[in-house]
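Morning run. Coffee first, then this:
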Amino acid sequence: MAFKEIQPGQADWLNVLNDNLKNNKWDRQTNAGTLINGCTGWVSGTIGYDADMYVACITGWVTLPNKSVTEFSTNPFDGILDSKDLPVVGSAFMGQPSGQNNFSPMKFSTDGNLSVLGNTGSQWDEKVTYTGWISMTFVGPRSQMKI
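And here it is:
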């Protein structure tokens, strides 16, 4: 249904929307993680934040050299977020492109590096290439950020 005119009592919604957006200041930055322990691929972290909160996501494509390697990248948010006790939204995982046993949970190690938790079992048997995409999302209060 098309509106031909603003009725009495209705605000100019476009001006109101633009004014509200001007007052909502979100900044964002993207940083790369450094692959370690012979791993190849790429890891990237993007964080968006305002005065009250942040939303951060780590993504990438990683190949582990063998099933004994668990730590694969430095924290792309090093100096921005402390990796301890970050509030992960949903699952943090490494998904395999074959779709069979398609993910292995991941987390930050005690050293602050990204690591795979499920490096044993059927998803890590001899038939598997240790390659997959990673996804990890966090949301939290701005006070958890170091910048």
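Residues 13-22 form the longest helix (10 residues). Good start to the day.
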